[in-house]
Each structure stands twice: as C-alpha cells, then as structure tokens.
Amino acid sequence: MPEGSHPRVFINYRRDDAAGDAGRLFDALSSRFGKGSVFMDVDAITAGADFAEVINQAVGACEVLVTVIGKSWLSLANADGGRRLDDPRDLVRLEIQSALKQKIRVVPALVQGAQMPRADQLPKSLAKLAGRNAFEISHGRWQHDVELLIATLEKPTQETPAAPNNLPRQLTSFIGRSEDVNEVKRILLTSGLVTLTGTGGCGKTRLALEVAAGVLDDYRDGVWFVEFAPVTDPGLVPYEVASTIGVQEQRRQDLTETLIARLRHQRTLIVFDNCEHLVAACATLAGALLSACSELRILATSREPLRISGEVSHRVPSLEQSEAVQLFVDRARLARSDFALHETNSSAVEKVCRRLDGIPLALELAAARVRMMSPGEILDHLQDRFQLLTLGGRTSPSRHQTLQAAVDWSYRLLSHPEQILFNRLSVFAGGFTLYAAEAVCAVDGLAGDRIVDLLTALVDKSLVAVSEDRSGRSRYVLLETLREFAREQLEMSGAREARMCHANYFLGLTMQTEPMLTGPERATIVQQLEDDHDNLRTALRWLVDAHENEMALNLAGVLVQFWLMHGHMTEGRQWLAGRIEGSTAAPAVRAKALLGQGRLALKQSDHIVAASSAKDSLAIFRELNDPAGIAHGLNMLGAIFHEQEDPAAALPYFEQSLAVAREADDRYAIARALNNLGTMNFDLGDYVAARMYFLEALALKRDFSAQSQIAHTTSNLAEVLLEQADHEGARSRYQESLKIFRELGDQVMIAFCLEGFSALAADRGEPKRALRLAGAADAQRTMVGSIIHPAARTRLESHLAPARESLGPDASAAAFKEGSEMELDQAVAEALAVDVS
C-alpha cells in the first residue's frame, strides 16, 4: 500500500441490527476511511439483485472486513423467528463467508460487551471466525479503543509465512473423504485431541496428513508429524516427539516437562501416527501435554481410541464405491499411463473395489498390477486369495483378513528373489538406504549387484515407498502392515542371519562415524544417525534378546557421543544399565562403555554414578596402557568436580589429562584439556592463565574445524576478555560464537552469548539494553529447561547491579520483561547492536 493511503474496508453492520456503539463505530470508520471505501450492505444491494454475487464482488474489492458483533449478534431472528445466521442467504453470513473463502483479512469488533462466539455456535462455513483475535470496543474507553482499531486497520497486511512443519510431501493425489477432512478440521477447532480410528490400511495416516496440510495457517508455531510405527518401547514415546519437534532433553528435568515448557504457549498441531501398539504411553503423554498446553492440538491415528478425557474419536470408514473406483483408476494410471475405464473393464474394476471393501491400501496394491494384468485377471487372482484366507475358522475381523489377502496375493506374485529381498527388508525399522539394503540383504544366494534391480521392482509394485532425506539421498521404507507380513515370512525361513547382518552393519556404521562427530562433518553425521535411530534401537534390542552381550555393549558404547549430542541421555543410560558389571566383553569394550555411562550420568548431574564409572574405566584404560582412554577418564573426573563447584579439586585432573594427551599427541584430547584448564583458572580468578589456555585450545580446534567446539572455546575466551575490560575483543568473540550457535541451533549456548552481551551492554553504560538482553536470555533458558551455572549467574549479576541501580526497580523490571517477550531474531539483533566504540 502506498505511503499515506488507506485500506479499503468493508463493514458488515446494519443500522437495524444494533444501536449505540455499533452505529457510532460505523460512523467513525466511515469518517476515517471515506465513504467510497466503506460498503454498507443494505444500501449497496438493489432490489432483485443476486445477493451472493453482489457481496462477493463488494467484499472482494476490499482488503479488510470489519465484522461488528454485538451482544445479540448470535440470536438476531428473521421474520419467521429463525436465527438469522442459520439462514444461508443471510447477508452478514454471506459477507463473512465470502471474506474467509477469499482469504481477506477479517477483524471482529466486539461492542456492547459482546464476547467472541465458540465454533459450535456458528454455522460450519463461519467456524474459522471463532479463532480470530477480536477488538473490544468499550463504551468507557471509546476513543482509545477506536484509535487502536483504526491503527491496526491501516497497517498493511503482511503475508504470513508458512508455519514450520515436517509434513512429508505427498506424491499421489488425495481422493475422496472431503466430508471427513472438513469434519476433522471442525472438531480440531474445539477439541484438544482427535483420534482417527479404523482398520489397518483404511487410510488413517493419509487422512491425517491431508487435514494437517490444510490447517497450516491455523498453527503459527508449527505442524509436526510424529511416526510411532518403528518405535517398539513405550518409554521412547516422549523422546520420539521431542526429537521430531527439536526439543532436547535437559538435565534435572523430566522430558515430558521439557516438552510442556516448549509447547505451553505455542499454537501447535502434532500428529501422533500409528499409536495402537503404544496406546497407553501415547495416552499418558497426550494427557499430560494437553492438560498444560491450552493451544496445543493433537491429531492421532490408531486402531483404537486413546481413551483420555476430552478425546473425540473419528472412525475412518472404507471409501464409498465411487471413490474407491476413482482411487483405483488414478493409481492404475500411475502404473500404466494409458489405462482408462471403459465398458469392457468397468464391471471388473467395480467388483475388485467391492471385494476389497474400499480399503485404500488394498486398492493401491491391486491397481499396481495393471502394468501386467487386466482388471478381470486381477479379480480372478483376488478371488483365489480371499478363498485361501477366509477359510479355516479365523477369528480376525473380516477387513483385516481382506487386507491380509491383498498383501499375501501381492507377495505371491513376486519372483523368488524379490520375495527373499522383501522378507529381509523387514529387519529395518524406520527406513533404510540403498547402501544399507545392499550391505544387509546381499547374503545367502542374493548377489549384491542384484539388489538395486530387485528393490526397484518392489518400489514399482508399491511394496516399498521411496522418499528423499534432508541431504537429498533416497530413503526407502516398508509400510508397517507390509513390514509385519514380511517379518512373519522371514521368521518362518529363519531370521537370525538377517538380523545379525543388520546388527553388524549398524555397529560398523557407528564405529566408522564416531570420530566424525567431533569434526567438520558433525552435522551431517548426526542427522544420518538420527535418520537411522530406529534401526540402531532395533539392532540393540535384538542383540540383547539374542544374548549377544559383547556386540550390544560395543554398539551402546560407540553410540554415547551421538546420544550426548542429540539429547538422548536417559535412553542411553537405560541401554547400558546393568550390562557392564559382570560382563565377559573385552576390556576395551567394557572401559569404553563405562566411560560412556559416566558421561551420560554427568550430563544428568548423577555424580555418584559418573564418578564410579569414570574411576572403573580409568583403571581398565591404565591396565591396557591406552593414553587416549586415560586422558578421557582423567578429564571426566575433573569435570565431575567442576560440576560440584570445586575448581581447585578439578584442576589436577585436567592437568594430568593434558600431560597424558600431549605424550600421546592426541590433538582432540589436548584441546579438550586446555579448554577445561582455561575454565578452571577463570573460575579461580586467574584470567591471564585462562586466556592463555583458551587461545591455545582455540588454535588446535581451528585446525580440525570442529565448529561447535570452536564456538564453545570462543565464547569462553569472550568471558575472560569481558572480565579484563577488553570490550571490543569480547564483543568480537561473542559475535563469532553466537553466529555458529545460531547455525547449529544450540539454544543453551545462544542464551549464554546473550548473557555475555547483556554484561557488555551494562559495562558500556546501556542499562536498559543490558536488562532487555538479560530478560531475553532468561526466556531462552526457560524455553529449553536450562539453568545458568551459579558462578556464571554471580558474575552476570555483578555486571547488572549498576544497571539496575541506574534505572531503578520498576524500570529495570519493565526492561527485563520487555526482553523476555522478544522473538529470538529480535534479541540477537539487540545484542549485536551493543556499542563498544
């Protein structure tokens, strides 16, 4: 909008509807925006005109619709006594409906003490209006409220960016179920939990994704899809949700509480997909989140309801016959582009759809065969398979039998090598890469050079789905129903060899990538391991169940660095608990596992377990004469004393660790020890020594390009420079580290840098900015459940005390609150604006 111009405003108020403030508001807005820009429906519509058409044109010519809502707005009656809003031809209803449909900005203005209606008080076409923020026009504050409304209307409408989401892109069209989509959207307006129930393969997940994609604009803080199908342990349900939405586990805080802290004030939709095998755990988590987070919505898919208070269950039926035929034809055209419905095949297609009960998965499997069979031949084969699976007194539900028939029929049409590969692929959980399939499945008569062709055939036949991961690599997955079927086939032919190949592959992968977790490839490797986390869990579980204890301990020990970096501390400790003591594994494996157990315990401030594990691992490393292990064990003992705020006790351990690391020329261990010695000397007040240690550590870390480690040491150095009153140097170092932490998404260290800038601003005579940045840092820590170290808090407060005294208690509190309400980008910009010239 050009500077100085005004928006074109449509006001849907009629003088015969209300009086008093409503009429005054219309006059005030007409005067402000001009009669030519304001439409009044009764005067604008001539006798005999098509009301809907005229209103669409009038509303469409405007940028804003102001809908005036009085106390009696919902109950206004027509001449026959019926509620006016229930009449599809009512002018006000048509106006709002037109604006909502055309995505025109709608501003409800509440007068005469009116309140916003609930969605269930409005006609379905107006239900979205219930979620709008309204302006209250109070008679007592008339001038002030009207000026606020006018100022808001004059702001150019900003294009709202798409809400953050991880919804997978759907490569095929969504057919039918329009009423189900609209109904689920309507229920979500007023219900915290909606569960889509139905038989396997009926399309619950696809319906959930369609609904989620259609309501992105309604959830400003994100729409997240959490897939539980690969998860077998109920205890991992909160971890799967946290991993998906980017919440890391925090020390001394239950993960559910951490999730609540993130979601409490966010308008977010989370899809819980495939809950049936984890129904109790999903119900517990959903109940806890919804009880504490008023704007959170959960859309679940499950074969049974979660059965918690406030849940609305929506059963997903089979497709209607016409929709089933449409789906079959659409998917058949993907298999054969020239496929068409005509007189000679229409009857067979209709019978196939009817025999498959309109179950989408069964229809898609059948349609995929059009490449090689006519619909009549498909019908003949299908009839044989139904006969096979419905005889013999089975007690399963008929639709489950129908789905099994479709899967079994499709499986038996595969060649023998395709069947072998399909069965072996069932050992993967949560997907796999082509390289993983070649490594795991190319054994016992299945040549490695055949895997790519066989896998392509399975993709073509809709038995394996393919997508792209974040790095652009193809990733494959079996639908869970198909994976279960394939797993049963594998068990009948002997699954141990395939499972051992799977475990060996992922043990080799983690051992190969562990050193890279501290190098420049860190982000890529962490994401790769996160993509395969379900496979890693599956391999660990099988190794434990198969009593392959040494391999299990080895895999868990190698995974510790990943668990630490991605916030899976509790899960890691659970895998290691009770499996080290008394183990007959090789000493090096036990030592590494003990060290890992101690590191995980230390992250959760369990100092007793951390110290015991560190001492036991150190003893084994000394027996093995392993310098790297010795340096690591000594370093951890020093870290434990540092955690307990005893730098004097920690210092000798770090000095010993440095000496061992230098003797072994272990550059990473040297850099780690130098950084920790810098921290200890800083805590003891020896800033000269601290600065020397940090500079030497930083030079080493820059050599092996460990961005996260570079940023940590740089921020530590900035702290020293700040205490030495080198404000320009401190600002430069904080700026460098903040940039890296933003790129890595390290929320805790972002808060640390904001605290540094807060102290810097206070020292440079900017008290208000200092308190705003302190408030922003505090809000950031609260969001992720992080607690500032007591010594760091003492130092920060020593810088802020003069700023608080300068502003006074009230102004200080106001500035702190203002900062706590900043968006992160705004807080970072505020930090970078600190003047040290």
Describe this structure in words.
This protein is an alpha/beta fold and 837 residues long. Helices cover 59% and strands 6% of the residues. The chain is built from 37 helices and 12 strands. Strand 1 (9-11), helix 1 and strand 2 (38-39) form a beta-alpha-beta unit. Residues 384-402 have low confidence and may be disordered.
Task: Describe how the helices and strands are arranged.
Elements: E1 9-11, H1 21-33, E2 38-39, H2 41-44, H3 51-60, E3 64-69, H4 91-101, E4 105-110, E5 135-136, H5 142-154, H6 178-190, E6 193-197, H7 204-214, E7 223-227, H8 237-245, H9 255-263, E8 269-273, H10 279-292, E9 297-302, E10 311-315, H11 321-335, H12 343-355, H13 360-367, H14 375-390, H15 398-412, H16 416-424, H17 434-441, H18 451-460, E11 465-468, E12 474-477, H19 480-493, H20 496-513, H21 522-531, H22 533-545, H23 549-565, H24 569-576, H25 587-603, H26 607-624, H27 627-643, H28 647-664, H29 667-683, H30 687-703, H31 707-723, H32 727-744, H33 747-763, H34 767-784, H35 790-807, H36 809-820, H37 824-832
Parallel strand pairs: 1-2, 1-3, 3-4, 4-5, 6-9, 6-10, 7-8, 8-9
Antiparallel strand pairs: 11-12
Content of β-strand: 5-15%
Outline the biggest β-sheet: 5 strands, parallel
**Strand-pairing-aware structural class:** alpha/beta
Enumerate how many helices there are, as a single number: 37
List segments where confidence is low: pLDDT < 50 over at least 5 consecutive residues: 384-402
Helix proportion: 55-70%
What would you report as the Rg, rounded to the nearest angstrom? Answer: 32 Å
First-to-last CA distance: 39 Å
Tell me the number of strands: 12
Mean pLDDT: 84
Q: Widest sheet: strand order?
A: 2-1-3-4-5
Morphology = flat
